[in-house]
Amino acid sequence: MKKPSPEVRQGSSEVGIQESLVVSKDDDSLTKLTVAELRAMMRNGIQPTGRKQDLILALKKVSRNESAVQNSGNGLPKEAEDCLPDINPGQVVRQGRKTRHKSSIKFSVKDSQSLVQCVADTADKLQVAGKNSTKSKKQSKESKRSVDVIAQSSCFEKETESAKAPLTKNENTDCEESMIESTAPDKVLARKKRKTSEVIEKSNMMEGNAVGENEPVSNFEKPWTMLVHKKVQPGWVAYNPDIMRPSSLLETANIIKMISWNVNGLRALLKRKDENSFLQLAKKENFDVLCLQETKLQEKDVEQIKQSLLDDYDNSFWTCSVSKLGYSGTAVISRIKPVSVKFGLGIPDHDGEGRLITIEFDTVYLVAGYVPNSGQKLERLSYRVQQWDPSLSSYLKDLEKKKPVVLTGDLNCAHEEIDIYNPDGNRKSAGFTDEERMSFEDNFLNRGFVDSFRQQHPQAVGYTYWGYRQGARRWNKGWRLDYFLVSDSIADKVYDSYIIPDVNGSDHCPIGLILKC
Length: 517
Fold this sequence. Notes:
There is one protein chain. The protein is of the alpha+beta class. The protein is built from 16 helices and 16 strands. Helix content is 36%, strand content 15%.
């Protein structure tokens, strides 16, 4: 078996960046190395990704940057060499099972900070001792440049350590500033800076700090208490039901408690015996009425599902999609016997997908709806804003002539920027287009219906939907798509309008309304 060349052995044994860069100056040697060997040379400080040519270019670039900051072999003027750890040249250090030379030893964050301070003090002494000396000024500049490079390395060390312990705000600031002031102008540094910023953002979120704010909100076990928003405004706070709901229930018999939840497939939810989210919700909230959206049931399945649901709720009403089986669908489950029940809008073009149920109680109409989504390519946008929304609005106004109305469900619209984590990135996404938001305002809010949650919590960032991709719920990057809209005449009778973010089982969470009758 052919033994690798000394250059290959040196790079692939992970002896450190400074030794590896000696090899990287030789174009022929680099070209002969395999991708695995090149990556092994780059493990200490450079991203070991990309094609072979990319790896070679990265090594060359770091080699040039290292040369730019080196003076006496370690980047420090002679007067500052005492700041370095007391290790003789060529001394070998044992680190567990690995043997490393002096040139590859990594400083801890604490060591790096001490080294930065020591070199900075040396630079100040040089400047004071020889203000008019050209040599002193040159040495001072060299020390300052070394401080920048060492501080930069310290930040990268912090980035690595942050995986074990989140950074503090002061450490974050120091790292950002040192990177901006650093004189190493290469793409690797820019990439490191971006990477560190991401670590900073995540650590802030885990510590309970809003992006751009300094207020603590909560711990990482309750992500909904983290104020996470791309455009946080002064005064905004994360919605936390633990402290923002009334401390005690209204002590009167004349209240009705309603819950609404997009379950994203009822059969799948009921099969989740590990969580029993449905039963947990019933036990926790003890609601009078439960409205479900996106049940995805067929009519033949309804009777079987009804038998497996809740006790003490003798009244349940179901509507399923007939134009597309296993799609959409809504339901209302109630312990209060209604005066009357109606399915749909009474318009054939709108009623084939099982999207609406109207329940008449003694003092109020409850309309449980699932508004059509405009589609990934906005293929149903015109139908949504030109037909469905105006028809639903007119229907509600007709009901309102007899009794006040409560409209609830997944209305598939984040009305304002506060209602969505990333407003600028979703201007052309279904649920946040200008057309949908304007339609929501024109057909409902401007026609006498009140967003009960926003009325009660005008500056609270509370989401009810999180996509399954990229851990959106874990990082509280969501949308508020679910509502209780009430007639203006009963807006003052809303005792509590709230979000229940700790109930899992769907990409939506339930919402609630307590209304004084």
